[in-house]
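Technical appendix A lists one of the benchmark inputs used to test multi-chain prediction within the project. The record comprises two sequence entries:
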Amino acid sequence: MPEVVIPIGPHHPALKEPVNFRIIADGEKIVRLELDLSYNHRGVEKAAEQRDFIRVLPLLERVCGICSHSHATAFAKGIEEIMQIGIPPRARYIRTIIAELERMHSHLLWLGVAAHLIGFDTLFMWTWRDREAVQDTLEEMSGNRVHYNINEIGGVRCDLTPSQVNAALARLPLLEERVNTYVDMVNSEETLLIRFRGVGRLSKEEALRYGTVGPTARASGIDYDTRKDDPYLAYSEAPWNVVTDSNGDVFGRTRVRVRELQESLKIVRFCLENLPEGPIRVPAPKNAPKGEILSRYEAPRGELAHFIRTNGTDRVERIDIRTPTLANWTSVAMCLVNRNIADIPVIVAAIDPCLSCTSRITLVDNQTQKAGVIGFDELIRRYRSRNPEEV
Amino acid sequence: MTGPLTPDRLAETMKAYGVIEQVRKNRIRITTAPDKVHDTIRTVQVMFGFDRLITISAADNGRSLELIYHLTGPHRMVVSIAVELERAQPAMPTTTDILPPAGIYERQIHDLFGIVFTGNPHMKRIMLNEDWPADEYPLRKDWKPDPDTFYGGIKGERS
C-alpha cells in the first residue's frame, strides 16, 4: 500500500506549540514520524555568553514560561558550585518551596490540557481553577505569577515573611483535598480511563533505551529522579518518595503526575513548617574561576541538564541546555509507530512538550501581531545600538 | 560485577582509555581520543551498567571543538567522556548504534557547531530554520552574523 505523508503543524489546532510533524501513514496507521523543531529558536545560549551572571539569570528564566525557576536554579547552583560557595539553609528552603510550587502549577496545567484534548473540559476548568491557588501563592512570595526571578548567585532575592508563610500554609488544605480528588478521578473516571488506557505504551526497556526522562520515564517503572539521585536544595531533608507506575501508557503518566502533586504538597508543607532562620544570601564574587560543571535538576517535565563552562570572568564560556522535552522526543517518535493518527495529540501531550524550552536558537520571533517577524540581524543591530561597547 | 561500584574502581578500569579526573563525588571525567569514544562508551555500558545518556554537550574552546558525553546508570554515578575535535573538518563517528537517544543531540550539534557525525542516517536539520545558510554554525566562537546574508524570516518585511 502506498505511504502518505501528512504534515501536521507548525500551526495546527491540535498542537499547543509550534512543531512540525511529517507523519508517514499507511491508511490510519502511522509508519514513521519526522520532526522539525526549528520554529522557536531564540539564541538564548549564544546570548547567555554575552552577559554577566546577574543578567543571565533573568534571561534563562525566559527559556521557558512554565519551568522558569528550573532553569534559573540549575544555572545558579552550577555557578555556585564552581565558585565553591554554599548558600544559606533558608535560601535553600525558599528555592525548594518555589521549585515544588512550580512543579504543582505545571502538573495541574498539564492535567487540564490533557483533559481538554480528550474533550473533558470540566476537568480542565477545575484544575486550572485550583492552579490559581498555587499561582497566588507564587505571586505573594515573589511578586510574579510566572517569572518568579527569586534566584541570585549566592542565595535568593527576597525573604518570606511570617504572614506569607501562614497565607501559603492556609491554602494547602484546599489544595490537598483537590489533589486527592484528582487522584481518585484519574483512577476511576470512565472518560479518562477510556482515552488514556493503553495509549502510547512504552515498556520499561523501551523507555530506558530511548533515554526517556521525568514522569514519562517514571510511568514506565524507571525510578530515575534527579532529586533523589543527585540531591540538591532541600530534597535530602524533606520527606518524599519517588513516584513510579507500571502502566507505561498515558494513563500511567497521568497517575504519576497526580501522585507527584501529592509529594510536592508534602515537600512544600515540610519546608514552610521547618523554614530555618538566618540570612537569605551570601555575597558572591563577581567572577567565577575557570571550571566546568554539569548541573542536573529535576524540572516538572524531567531531568534538565545545564552544562556550564566558565573562564575566570563574569561571563560563561559556554552554556549548553538540554531540556527534558528534547530528551523525550525520541520516545514519542517511537511510541507513535503503529498507532492511530487520532492518538497523536494525546500521546504528544503526554510528555508535556515545551518547545520554547527545546529550540532556543532560531532567529525568527513573532513580536507584534501585525508586522509578523523580526530578523536576527535586526535583533543584533538593536542590541548593538543599546550596548555599543559590548559587541 | 562484584560489590558496589565506586569511583576508584571505575577509574582503575577506565584509565586505559584516557585521562581520568574525579570532578566530584560520584562523577568521573574521562578525556579520550575521537577513535576511542565508541569503545569507551561500550565499556562503561557493558562493564558498569551506564545505560542512560543524559546529554551530549558541545563547546568551542577557540582551538578545537569539544564533545562531552554524559552517562549515568542504576548506581547513579555520572561519567563524562570528553573528546576534542580539530576545527577544520570536525567529524566524529556516530554513537546512535549504541545510544539510540544520541541521534537528536547529534543533529542539534551538527546544526549549531557543524560537527559531522559519520554514520548517522538522519543527519538532517532540526534546530535551525530551513532558510539558514548551510555553512554557518552560530555557536562557534568565531561566528558573526553577516549583515548582507539572509538568515530567515520573510524577505523585505523586517521592521
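The beta strands of chain A are 4-8, 20-26, 29-36, 151-152, 155-156, 291-299, 302-310, 316-322, 365-366, 373-374. The two ends of chain A are 57 Å apart (CA to CA). Comparable benchmark entries are summarised in Table A2.
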